[in-house]
Amino acid sequence: MFMVSLLAQTNGVDSFSGIDGFLGARGSLMLDIVVLAMLVVLVVMAVSIWQVKYRQRYELHKRIQLTLAFVLLVVIVGFEIDVQYVSQWEHRATASPYFDQDNSWSCPAGMGLVIHLMFAVPTLVLWVAVIYQAWQHFPNPAAPNEHSFTHRRRARLAAFGMTMTAVTGWVFYWLAFVAT
Ligand code: HEM
Q1: β-strand partners of 20
Q2: d(CA 54, CA 13)
Q3: Are 173 and 49 in contact (CB under 8 A)?
Q4: Model's pTM, two decimal places?
């Protein structure tokens, strides 16, 4: 409770709940961190896949993916605490021409959020499954084996899902918190 009230500072004029972000838009601090983190995740994921595909650096790929998963977990937990208990994204979106308080799910910003969630939720499940199965089936240190075929197929789908999660997340952010 103390943490929540500590975090529920206001920015004076607009009096948004939660801490304001740093991107110069109306996003909260955690929203802005996630927007930036998704860019880092995509770049690091691309490096990791390039390393395994063209340089056969399996152990490096494994370490990068596990680190990425840990960082993502921390960011998602922080983000969920912010969105569920501290900041009200609807309040921050009211100045957007693409947001309508009375039709919050069917207005363009709301639909943008629904489309984003349609990628984000299945990708989270697939991501956890790919890591768990890779952890279970590949040897230590990591190297190709009979799990390779399954891993390549599912991991490519997971990477595509993560890319779409980021892109749709950025579109939603723009519709709700940047557009005026
Ligand atoms: C969600 C996390 C992960 C993603 C998105 C991912 C992605 C990929 C992709 C796309 C490839 C295929 C590259 C290609 O040839 O086109 C690959 C290969 C591989 N990954 Fe992962 N990976 C993940 C986690 C892991 C983990 C945790 C391990 C080890 C425990 C691992 C071990 C390997 C190995 C050994 C290969 C080579 C398979 C082969 O070509 O025979 N990966 N990964």
Answers
A1: 28
A2: 53
A3: no
A4: 0.89
Q: Are 27 and 35 in contact (CB under 8 A)?
A: yes
17 alpha carbon – ligand 1 mean position (Å): 41
Torsion of CA 35, 23, 48, 113, to 10 degrees: 10
What is d(CA 25, CA 82) in angstroms, rounded to the nearest whole number? Answer: 17
Tell me phi and psi for residue 90, to 5 degrees.
-60, -40
CATH 1.10.150 fits 2-178, yes or no: no
Q: Ligand 1 centroid to 23 CA: how many Å?
A: 33
Q: Which atom of ligand 1 is nearest to the CA of 142?
A: 35
**pLDDT-based confidence at 52, cuts 50/70/90?**
very high
Confidence grade of residue 153 (pLDDT, cut at 50, 70, 90): very high
Pocket test for ligand 1, best of 151, 153, 154, 164 (most atoms within 8 A of CB): 151
Q: What is the arithmetic mean of pLDDT over 76-88?
A: 89
Length of the chain: 180
Query: What residue's CA is closest to ligand 1, atom 11?
Result: 152
DSSP category for residue 20: B
pLDDT at 16: 76
Question: What ranges do the domains of the chain cover?
Answer: 2-178
